[in-house]
Amino acid sequence: MTEPCNVVVLISGSGSNLQALIDSLNESNPARIRAVISNRAEAFGLQRAQAAGIDTRVIDHKQFADRDAFDAALMEHIDAYAPQLVVLAGFMRILTPAFVRHYQGRLLNIHPSLLPRHKGLDTHRRALEAGDSEHGCSVHFVTEELDGGPVAIQAAFTVRPEEGLDALTSRVHAAEHVIYPLAVRWFAEGRLRLCEQGAMLDGAKLPATGHLIRT
Predict the structure, then answer these.
(1) What is the pLDDT of residues 176-188, one digit of tens each?
(2) At 118, is the pLDDT very low, low, confident or very high (cuts 50, 70, 90)?
(3) What does the pLDDT average to over 110-117?
(4) Is the pLDDT of residue 1 over 70?
(5) In Å, how far from its chain's centre is CA 51?
(6) Largest alpha-carbon pair distance within the chain?
(7) DSSP readout, 100-169?
(8) Binding site membership for (6R)-10-formyltetrahydrofolate: which residues?
(9) Which residues bear the site annotation Raises pKa of active site His (predicted)?
(10) Residue 139 near residue 153, CB atoms below 8 Å
(11) Per the residue annotation, which of 77, 111, 135, 173 is the catalytic one?
(12) Is 111 a known active-site residue?
């Protein structure tokens, strides 16, 4: 039996990916969400966590002199839960190098594009404007390079003719809710790891685009 894997989730908003993670938890899944931490007191995701009986914390970044001070306080709160994994689920903060190094190999993020395409913001509009035939989302290990860490898993789908921004956004959200719980479970089971060679699944190096699922 795999030992439980303590997880801390960081959010800033509605927490739909957090809800997908909560919904994926069961006796066969070794992941255990110990706490949900937000930099915004009004984040609806905090209510989702509380409804599931999960500890919540608010650490308001505006109460700190700079990013380094905020990240230091954030690390202290996270480490109180002794997590094996820290999950970014719509956490709208650029993390300091010290924070990223502290959680190296145990920090995951989900990005709404098929990395390395469309790093940064406004990915769905950029995909449409570029005329991309495919779009999707990526779960990756976080490194000091913004949206540049090794990819663990991607969900890809064909962009439909005349597809609008709202429809595309909804399809990406649905795909995120599939692959993020899967990546977290793989990590909790000891199957997904970050090594010097890159992201590894079941001891084999993943390609640059990670494990691909078509939806």
Answers:
(1) 999 999 999 999 9
(2) very high
(3) 97
(4) no
(5) 21
(6) 49
(7) HHHTTTSEEEEESSSTTTT-SS-HHHHHHHTT-SEEEEEEEE--SSTT-SPEEEEEEEEPPTT--HHHHH
(8) 67, 92-95, 109
(9) 147
(10) yes
(11) 111
(12) yes
